[in-house]
Amino acid sequence: MTRIFLLAVVAVCSALAVVYAKYRTRMLFAEVQRLELALDQYEVELGQLQLEQNTWAEHGRIEHLARSRLGMILPARESIIYIKP
To answer: Does the keyword Cell inner membrane apply (predicted)?
Structure first.
């Protein structure tokens, strides 16, 4: 009689372990899905920021800002000194 009771307890514990493992698997899968969605959003944001950085660093824009805000001009060809490394 005690063996049957012991086997029943083991079977119930095993069933509970299976249920818990299944629940935990679903929770972890949901977490992975959430993190992958966040990763996709960060990758989109990174692409937008890289595009913005390239726009801000364009040669024509930098030259325009140097002329308008800083009053800089391109020196005459004769006044440029080239230094060899």
So the answer is: yes
Range of the domain at 25: 2-69
pLDDT tens digit string along 12-71? 999 999 999 999 999 999 999 999 999 999 999 999 999 999 998 898 888 898 999 999
Model confidence, pTM: 0.59
The structure tokens listed for 46 are 């990174």
Query: CA-based Rg of the chain, rounded to a whole angstrom?
Result: 34
CB atoms near residue 66 (< 10 Å)? 13
Q: What is the DSSP letter of 78?
A: G
Residue 14 included in any domain:
yes
Residue 58 lies in a domain: yes
